[in-house]
Here is the input.
Amino acid sequence: MKSEEHKQTFATIASYYDALMSFVDYPAWVSYIEAILTLNKIKEKTILDLACGTGVCLELWWQKGYNIIGLDNSIAMLEVCKKRLTQISNDSIYLINGDMRNFVFAKRLPIITCLYDSLNYLLTEEDLLSCFQNVREALDNNGIFIFDMNTVHCLRDEWGNSTFHRQDANIHSVWTNSFNPETNISSLTLTLNIHKNGEVKTIREFHQERAYPLITITDLLSRAGFEYNFYRHLTFNPAHEINVRIMGVAKK
Ligand SMILES: C[S@@+](CC[C@H](N)C(=O)[O-])C[C@H]1O[C@@H](n2cnc3c(N)ncnc32)[C@H](O)[C@@H]1O
Here is the structure.
């Protein structure tokens, strides 16, 4: 038997997201960010993760003794996140259903992160600027914003107009990409065939990510009032357009 569903981005795949991302070494990402925090002499232990998704990184931060706050605009992703975090802690955990282009905190924060392509989901320069401005406003005076982004090289040359297949546990996924060189937007049709009890359930979602040249990102950060550094992801080498993923470190 085969059933088929079509829903909005992340609403359908939320409960399969962790299985799909099982290849990502999140502990290495978090250790890398810890090294960035140490390098920048940040000692405070409260972190807001924007676009926290299912909360894998929030859990890792919590295990390291951080106070954690997550924000995401997908209720489905936040539900998975809440389930994960209530299993590890009875303390009050702050999860906010909000938009990273438009959020306000009464209290200033020392550390804000935004990881795993999330900023690429902002499809206009205005949205990216608005996010940077909101982040700056939410940070305390020595606050730091740490984020990754996929580069134009990644979306254009690595993903391009290609189709990838993956098998993660009982999920066969098909990733069909198409890149628009005029907008630097990559459109993805993601099809999941979930095998369970001899049946196959098929789910489809449409995703779009936009890549921004480094010069555009730095210009927007400057306009938001930040000083910044960029590294090739998971290194302390300077970032280049030829990198697949870059890591931004922005300070007030
Ligand atoms: C690729 S997932 C990354 C999730 C998580 N950061 C991780 O590392 O696994 C992108 C996330 O960005 C969220 N997102 C996209 N646009 C957003 C927005 N404007 N405001 C808040 N969250 C957003 C999605 O709901 C999704 O959870």
